[in-house]
């Protein structure tokens, strides 16, 4: 969908399917985020200034998606009543989510980040390979297995 170094030229709405956002850190993927059906996909730090993205987006499933280009969204903002308000509210939600994720990386243990993943993404837990979940949580797959085992034993 988007390779690192490319410019994100579209906002995508996923009708069906699943994607992940990731960084290539020293030849290893670091999963940052997931989007599923009913959500928008975009690397706003690339899309808004129309500059190269450091983040890649990969479809994890076949997707049915709708696209709107940078010029198209500018036209939408101008011509649709409350279009700019819609855009502002959407980007506010993205901003709040990004801040919460960054705070979690600095303050939460991997176990808490895994619990947050389960709480925030209950509909996709079975659809995402465990090594991507481990990457999202910030641990190796073996460590995620230990976390999962501990949590299962605590029930």
From TrEMBL:
It comes from Puia dinghuensis. Residues 5-78 form the Cyclic nucleotide-binding domain. It comes from the Bacteria. Transmembrane segments: none annotated. This is Cyclic nucleotide-binding protein.
